[in-house]
Design brief:
The complex is a heterodimer of chains A (293) and B (362). Chain A has 293 residues and is mainly alpha-helical. Chain A has 14 helices and two strands. Helix content of chain A is 75%, strand content 1%. Chain B is globular and about 60 Å long. The chains are: A mainly alpha (293), B alpha/beta (362).
């Protein structure tokens, strides 16, 4: 009995904080916008019953999303930005995690602290700091002009490059931590064995270290890729007005058009875009593991 | 300024936390939009604790109003937004018996705001202004010559002009409901048109100048103008005047002027209203009545450089406010202004879509 109770806790959590909100968003996405409070129709009314309520719902908003090329362009553009920035975060994060895992044991808590330390400052303030660094009269341009590498300031702020820089910086710890924990557990004798058997250090890294840290890489990539896909704050502060991302489109549907139903439909599609590939991926992983056993 | 307001908010909020049982009133107003000593004066006069929060976009306020249970007693939407929120049932009718100072209001402004709020049943005017040009006089003259008209839409909507100004920097408000009517006015169309075919005519005008616009933003231009980072901004009157004063204080050789458009400017009104679910409507009425006091309203306008809808306050206004045609325009300029009304949902969608297309090219 107690065991069931313990197992139930995460399920209740999932139900209350994920499934119920999702059902509400789904319900709104099937409604129509109206000038009312809240601004959509139909509202659920106990007197009329659930049947009359469901009869009012339709998929009109989802059809609408397919009619304007803005939406799929925004999804594709977000997907591209998320993929590229996950790649660069991995590129920057892996060596850091590797260095941390290989550092003397007494240094590791300090190094870990240094990775987590930026979280103690508000995320918003850190993004604003990047605006100061990247602007035309900012530190970066002043430094580059001082060294003589460039003679005219580079325009970085308000471009997609600034968005990539901001994302890689912000999400780096989410990449480092899972990879670090995978690498830390790595048995050093395996690498010694590989080298004894004639592997060069580089091929030992490719053949032993990378495959054994695969789970950390996958976890880190998901932790970066998923939130970046729906990212709103970084592109709106660092990006230009031609940076197209689904988070911005969603904001405009919700605030400028005050069309909550279409905004909800955009959110539902975004969620499906995320959940379906992840479920397929996990199923594939499971099959592989079973095959290995 | 914003920081000051925020600290103020925090101080007021802290003060109230100590005396939670006392009566309180929660006000949600635009940032940089009041003389903060008025807030203390209200608390001293009425004994009601005042909690003062700020916002910076109508869209944000509207979403809170439409979602309901905002917890605020007084909010300050702009006219066209107010109108739609009234239709949605977001506000309660004002109780005239609790507002003895309403006799101070200015009939000229009342007549215009009645277009949004029939009989002014739900709101009182706080401040009003126009949307026009903020110009760095020296730099623009240097680039376009001494004879250039600093008050014409040609400056920013004629490609050969804005092309030359681009290197120096041009900002536009990120507000489709202000910029699209402006482009329509430039074409000689009805700026308040709700006809999608007419609205579509604004697109080529804006697309032609888009490559030369550095940024669409509704508040950054204040500092950018004051620091001399940009030459021209399409902005709100009082904000440009704040930039003018900051430049004068900094004594950095930057001279900023505000000009309503010679072709006609959009006139807008920020209205104080009481949400239908306000926790303390009694105190909200007291706050409205306090604001309508001639001396208090004059203090607010003297501080933020926006005109107000309070006739009686005019004798207490400083001469650099009441006599400045950029704040209180002369009759010819007033007659040349236009107002806009809220778009129906489908038209609003077309407007937002056009705006995205202009800004991002998709």
């Amino acid at each position: 009995m107690r065991r069931y109770f313990l197992i139930a806790i995460p399920y209740v959590w999932l139900l209350a904080l994920f499934l119920v909100p999702f059902a509400i968003v789904l319900k709104i996405s099937l409604s129509d916008a109206a000038i009312a409070r809240p601004p959509y129709f139909p509202q659920f009314d106990w007197a009329e019953g659930i049947r009359a309520f469901i009869a009012e719902l339709d998929f009109e908003n989802f059809v609408f999303l397919t009619e304007d090329d803005l939406y799929w362009k925004a999804y594709l553009s977000s997907l591209k930005i998320a993929l590229i920035s996950t790649f660069f975060t991995l590129l920057a994060g892996y060596p850091i995690a590797y260095g941390m895992a290989r550092a003397p044991a007494e240094w590791r808590p300090t190094l870990m602290m240094l990775v987590i330390l930026p979280f103690w400052t508000s995320f918003l303030i850190r993004v604003y700091a990047w605006m100061g660094i990247l602007s035309n009269e900012g530190f970066l341009n002043q430094f580059l002009m001082w060294t003589g590498i460039i003679s005219e300031p580079l325009t970085i702020l308000n471009t997609n490059s600034a968005v990539y820089i901001g994302i890689v910086y912000t999400y780096l710890p989410f990449m480092i931590l899972p990879i670090y924990s995978a690498l830390e557990r790595l048995d050093g004798s395996l690498i010694e064995a590989a080298e004894d058997l004639g592997c060069s250090r580089l091929s030992a890294f490719w053949l032993v270290t990378i495959p054994l840290s695969k789970n950390g890489i996958i976890a880190g990539s998901f932790l970066v890729f998923i939130p970046v896909l729906g990212e709103f704050v970084i592109p709106s502060l660092l990006g230009g007005s031609n940076t197209l991302m689904i988070g911005k489109v969603l904001w405009e549907e919700f605030f400028s058009n005050r069309d909550w139903p279409v905004a909800s439909a955009v959110a539902v599609v975004l969620l499906l875009l995320l959940v379906i590939p992840i479920v397929l991926f996990q199923r594939n992983q499971q099959k592989q593991q079973e095959a290995e056993q | 300024m914003t920081l000051k307001t925020m600290t103020m908010t925090a101080v007021v909020a802290l003060g109230t936390a100590a005396a939670a049982s006392a009566e309180e009133v929660r006000v949600y107003n635009w940032s940089d939009y009041i003389d903060e000593s008025l807030l203390e004066k209200f608390e001293a006069e009425t004994g009601i604790d005042l909690i003062y929060d700020v916002f910076d976009s109508n869209e944000l306020l509207e979403t809170k109003m439409l979602a309901g249970s905002s917890g605020y007693d007084v909010v300050v939407p702009t006219g066209s937004f107010l109108q739609r929120q009234i239709q949605a049932g977001a506000f309660q009718k004002l109780d005239a018996s609790k507002l003895p100072n309403s006799g101070n209001l200015w009939d000229v402004i009342q007549d215009r705001t009645a277009g949004y709020d029939p009989d002014n049943a739900y709101s009182i005017n706080y401040m009003w202004g126009t949307t026009g040009l903020g110009v760095n006089v020296g730099k623009v003259r240097e680039i376009l010559g001494d004879d250039v008209a600093l008050n014409s839409m040609d400056l920013v909507l004629k490609p050969e002009n804005i092309e030359k100004l681009a290197a120096c920097g041009v900002h536009f408000l990120d507000a489709p409901t202000e910029i699209i009517p402006m482009a329509l006015r430039y074409l000689g169309e009805n700026p308040d048109s709700h006809d999608k075919d007419v609205i579509a005519k604004a697109e080529p005008v804006l697309t032609a100048v888009r490559p030369h616009i550095q940024k669409f933003h509704s508040s950054e231009y204040i500092n950018a103008l004051a620091n001399g980072d940009i030459c021209v901004a399409v902005g709100w009157s009082g904000d440009v005047l704040q930039a003018r004063d900051r430049a004068a204080e900094a004594d950095n050789g930057v001279e900023i002027e505000y000009h309503p458009f010679a072709e006609g400017s959009l006139m807008w009104f920020d209205q104080m209203a009481i949400p239908v679910d306000a926790p303390n409507p009694d105190a909200a009425h007291k706050f409205l009545n306090f604001i309508m006091d001639a001396n208090n309203m004059a203090a607010a306008s003297n501080y933020v450089y926006y005109a107000n809808g309070n006739k009686a306050s005019q004798e207490f206004l400083e001469s650099d406010v009441i006599d400045d045609p950029a704040i209180y325009p002369d009759e010819a300029t007033m007659a040349n202004t236009y107002i806009t009304t809220p778009y129906p949902a489908k038209t609003q969608r077309a407007v937002t879509r056009l705006w995205t297309k202009v800004k991002s090219g998709t």
